[in-house]
């Protein structure tokens, strides 16, 4: 359950739902396995898995949720081979070429035939809502996976307004300044990984792993004009991660000391172990993100959500009609 990736979104409106109410809202979109002709299904499941029945797990004001995505596995090579066999049979029988549109129809028929027999692959995507911090934190390595979870959460919670977290200072410029100095911000140390890009040539990328980031070679690249777009950092010696220019954290690794602290919970009770992990993890992430945002100059609260833009436009239109 320990998050390995952190994609952080800012709540632009107060979140006042408790665990019970949120659970009721999510129940309308509870996960249902794929039917015979479904290519995929998405829905909410208990974060505790088989050890729980509630779709929301609450600890210290934080609300953990979990989405499950199930997809039918149909290898493209297998589908294309079957389509090619059918197209070849038609060509030989009718002495003509099979056109693109007809091939697409054949492909649809093949998918219809093969889908009920296909294996189903499932993935879990965890996230938690932190009303006191004003964040939604998603454990997703890609922006598309995080947005899919949020899209389904918006469908369940009418009026949910969240946008990607942004800082007042541009991350790539700030990280470049740190590494050029070289001096890590307060509470942080440099890790051993970074990605440098040429602002004038998006295809020019240098990736450094297991390197001394204060080495002369890296410094020379920065002096030549390259900027830092990803940077390995260590927070208070307890959490290692790679932060990028979108303020997303990847390859998050919690120290053994923190993991052992959570392991002190009752080893025979899955719910208590989950609760301890969740409590320790959210406490550390909350403090980490606050220090990280301070290092980047604070939170940019001037950006607005899509919901706010639409609401503003609606008010303007209403005022115009009233006038």
From TrEMBL:
Its main location: cytoplasm. It is found in: Cytoplasm, Nucleoid. Keywords: Cytoplasm, DNA recombination. It comes from the Bacteria. It comes from Microbulbifer epialgicus. This is Recombination-associated protein RdgC. HAMAP family: RdgC. Transmembrane segments: none annotated. The keyword Methyltransferase does not apply. May be involved in recombination. Belongs to the RdgC family.
